């Protein structure tokens, strides 16, 4: 729940969430302690989030890495919400452009209640994805995602 209020929540919490795996022994390390303190600091500091205007224009900014993916929903350059998650096991083998596309799809699914039926701006740092959005659907395999 708190992930939407903290930028890079899943990345920060990764040492702690990795303790939940069945096959892993629970060992609280210095990395876990550091992550816990960082999250506590992030959650007790007032976030600068804005209440969305349903009639305003939205911008979605996404990014992906070898560890996770995330996005920011903005309106008038003010943060409405953050979203992030760790990569699923099978996603860890994806090529970078596929991960960037997964990040976009994930963000759009999370914020569809804000975005459906409205024009919005989408920003990603992966230039190769611009090609996907300029091709007819029949020519683009990635459009099936």
Considering the chains and any ligands shown, give keywords for the structure.
4 strands, 145 residues, DNA/RNA_pol_sf, alpha+beta, single chain, 20% strand, four-stranded mixed sheet, Retrovirus_Pol_polyprotein, multifunctional enzyme, catalytic activity, Ubiquitin-like (UB roll), 5 helices, 2 domains
The major β-sheet equals: 4 strands, mixed
CATH class of the largest domain: Alpha Beta
Number of helices: 5
Q: Kindly state the mean pLDDT as a whole number?
A: 83
Low-confidence stretches: none
Rg, rounded, reads 17 Å
Number of domains: 2
Strand order of the largest sheet: 3-2-1-4
Summing up helix and strand content along with how strands pair, one would put the structural category as alpha+beta
Question: Overall 3D geometry?
Answer: flat
Helix amount, in percent? 25-40%
- Kindly report how far apart the N and C termini lie: 26 Å
CATH level-two architecture of the largest domain = Roll
Please write the string of helix (H) and strand (E) elements.
Answer: HHEEEHHEH
CATH topology of the largest domain, what is it called? Ubiquitin-like (UB roll)
Instruction: Report strand %.
Output: 15-25%
DSSP strand count? 4
